[in-house]
Amino acid sequence: MGRKRKQIKVIPLGGVGEIGRNMTAIEYNEDIILIDCGMSFPEDYMLGIDAVIPDFTFLEENREKIRALFITHGHDDHIGAIAYFLERFKEVPVYGTGLTLGLVGNKLAYHEHLQDADLRRISAGDTITEGCFKVKAIKVNHSVADSVAFAVTSPVGTLVFTGDFKVDFTPVDDEMIDLGTFAALGTSGVLALFMESTNVEREGYTMSERTVGKTFENVFSHAEGRIIVTTFASNIHRIQQIIDASIKNNRKICILGFSMLNAAKVARELGYLHCPDECMIDIDRIGKQPPNEVTVITTGSQGEPMAALSRMANSEYKNFNIMAGDTVVISATPVPGNEKMVSGVINKLFERGAIVVYSALEDVHVSGHACREELKLMYSLVKPKFFVPVHGEPRHLTLSARMIHELGLEEKNILLPQLGKSILIDSAGIQYGEDVHAGITLVDGLGVGDVGNVVLKDRQVLSEEGLIITIVAIDDNKNIISGPEVLSRGFVYMKESEELITQIKDIVLGVMSSAQDKKKVDVMTLKNTMRDKLKSFIYLKTKRRPMIMPVILEADTAKKLDEFTVEDFQRQIDDEFEL
């Protein structure tokens, strides 16, 4: 019998076949390390959901093997689920660079019992040993400062995880991507490269972040009124360029918006953002400054209804609103799915007489992700034996694999990852292993994982079709002592649908009447019969399928309710729906 092959196992728990929710487990024998722990934004059908995070079931099943979590950078799609992870795995150390851990700390601030979480600061160039793994942090450029890739050396070989990156030869902080280390790894031998694919559809190279700075200088030098700039709060280099352009044009800077204030505070404290105190003003001083001496940096680049820019455009922001003559710069492009919201905010700004500058008109945004030529450069430097595209939707992953094959790598050495399907790698080959439990967990307020498909379906029905409630009170013999009453919410306006409401009441009476001959019929059976008959009738009459909620108050319940009337019940429903 031959010896068992040494294989390293890589398990995508998020970030493949999708944009966001990045998380990868790397397992060898009794050791597991994790790279990133991100969230994604809810899909349109996920009504009321705040965030989508990875399913941690596989990690729960293997918690004794988990040695550490390594974070590539501080964007929410890579750090947004860390607080939820630490709720279950508080003993696991979290490694990240200074700014990354600062942004993580912001999120943990709302979890009082996580204030002593084991956060360990690293710098590009550091090598950390956890279990059988040696993890080297490598400097990369991205749209958030202090981003790194990781080279993971194991008993089987070295794996390189690029994280999100681009090649910027003129970065704002003058710290260029460490191409030399990637080349050195390629020379010494890399078993597999896990490379991001976000911008694989774009030819050429991503423009330097300094391009945006030149546009800012041009816009600021010509603006005659107040300037309001919105961008991603984590893009510290972009914020720095806004500050630099403001100071150059004798403008005071006011920062507004919760996430922007938090990110700027952390970045200033850690030395990643530089702005003299005398150049900063708070919102109360804006009105005392001449309009041409004010710059506001704020949130809302994605058109979010509750973000500062949207509220300013709708005259709903305390002490500050958009007025004619303001110049508004939207320094971001819409995330897929947000185009309509962004367009709505832009139109509202134009209606208010603002001068609006956005990516369709000026170079006010550049991507933080590598285009095709940069991706090819990374592959050529690392020279891996095997290639796995990550960080992308199915088309991105497929196009990335096709591009690498065109560069000469055999198809058998390229593997398209799938969520929850383990990848086994050794010097002899790369292949799929067993499936593990993986998927999504929905976060709704303080609830984590308590909203599933059934609840989402109910919410969708309520939002699209409305709700019908029927109420009857019965005695011990199932005789009706009150009702039936019918309440409608989001289905029909009752005062204009009296005939339909009467017919619904007649069906309820018919069901209750038939129960007189069946003394042993339980209330649940009555409710189900009522619901089925009403569902068929209402669809026949209206071609709609509202949620139907029969309420049967039994004698004991009715006594407990005392004088609780149908009108009281209706007021309670009104309060629930804030009507």
Provide an overview of this structure.
- The protein is α/β, with parallel strands linked by helices.
- It is 32% helix and 23% strand.
- The chain contains 17 helices and 25 strands.
- The strands form five sheets. It has an eight-stranded mixed sheet with strand order 7-6-5-3-2-1-19-20. A six-stranded mixed sheet has the order 8-9-10-11-12-18. Strands 14-15-13-16-17 form a five-stranded parallel sheet, with helices on both faces.
- Strand 6, helix 4 and strand 7 form a beta-alpha-beta unit.
- Helix 5 packs across helix 11, helix 6 packs parallel to helix 7 and helix 14 runs antiparallel to helix 15.
- The longest helix has 20 residues.
- The C terminus is likely disordered.
